[in-house]
């Protein structure tokens, strides 16, 4: 039974105010493992192809392992940052302001990833990765990871969706003893968040991306 206290959020409010939390993660406040378990219980209600439920969830709280994952993440992020900054420089002045703010937040998390009290890895049992479109495969994991983030938000926890650690998937897998037929899909750093100013984010108008009947 899921018995934790949740915030009084409507479904639409929960869906539109669950943000990637990076600078506002409270790195000094311990997160009860039972709270993480509650969020994962919610995540397990997400759909999977043929109801196979081939997911696995690695919850890392050990300080040394968190620090090691943080080091791998930082190495991957440093390479990503150089490419990202080049892209930002090509944007309009208005878009540069927005992207630079997000970039600053991501930079902060990369520096402190190993200090986040809980790191959750969403994984999937995979016989062999297909060569073509993999949407049918990862569609059996990613909805559950998003459900985890929603459940965390409702319980006063913040998280951020990232996959940059996958550049070191093999090394992290060995660190955590993950079998070779279990592939990592997402890393969700989790901590209590500070502040209460979560609100819907600016988005491009729907009609710029909506296609009715054809492109």
Automatic annotation (TrEMBL):
<comment type="similarity">
    <text>Belongs to the nitroreductase family.</text>
</comment>
<keyword id="KW-0560">Oxidoreductase</keyword>
<dbReference type="InterPro" id="IPR000415">
    <property type="entry name" value="Nitroreductase-like"/>
</dbReference>
<dbReference type="InterPro" id="IPR029479">
    <property type="entry name" value="Nitroreductase"/>
</dbReference>
<feature type="domain" description="Nitroreductase">
    <location>
        <begin position="17"/>
        <end position="182"/>
    </location>
</feature>
<dbReference type="Pfam" id="PF00881">
    <property type="entry name" value="Nitroreductase"/>
</dbReference>
<protein>
    <submittedName>
        <fullName>Nitroreductase</fullName>
    </submittedName>
</protein>
<dbReference type="GO" id="GO:0016491">
    <property type="term" value="F:oxidoreductase activity"/>
</dbReference>
């Amino acid at each position: 039974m899921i018995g934790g206290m949740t915030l009084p959020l409507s479904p639409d409010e929960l869906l539109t105010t669950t943000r990637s939390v990076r600078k506002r993660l409270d790195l000094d406040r311990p997160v009860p493992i039972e709270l993480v378990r509650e969020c994962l219980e919610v995540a397990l209600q997400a759909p999977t192809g043929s109801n196979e439920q081939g997911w696995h969830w690695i919850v890392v709280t050990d300080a040394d392992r968190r620090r090691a994952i943080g080091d791998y993440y930082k190495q991957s992020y440093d390479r990503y940052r150089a490419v990202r900054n080049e892209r930002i420089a090509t944007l309009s002045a208005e878009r540069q302001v927005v992207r630079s703010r997000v970039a600053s937040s991501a930079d902060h998390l990369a520096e402190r990833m190993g200090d986040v009290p809980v790191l959750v890895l969403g994984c999937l049992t995979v016989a062999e990765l297909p060569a073509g479109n993999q949407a049918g495969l990862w569609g059996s994991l990613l909805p559950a990871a998003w459900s985890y983030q929603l459940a965390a938000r409702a319980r006063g926890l913040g998280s951020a969706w990232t996959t940059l650690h996958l550049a070191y998937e093999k090394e992290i897998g060995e660190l955590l003893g993950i079998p070779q037929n279990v592939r990592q899909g997402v890393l969700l750093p989790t901590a209590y968040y500070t502040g209460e100013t979560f609100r819907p984010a600016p988005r491009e108008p729907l009609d710029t991306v909506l296609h009715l009947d054809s492109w």
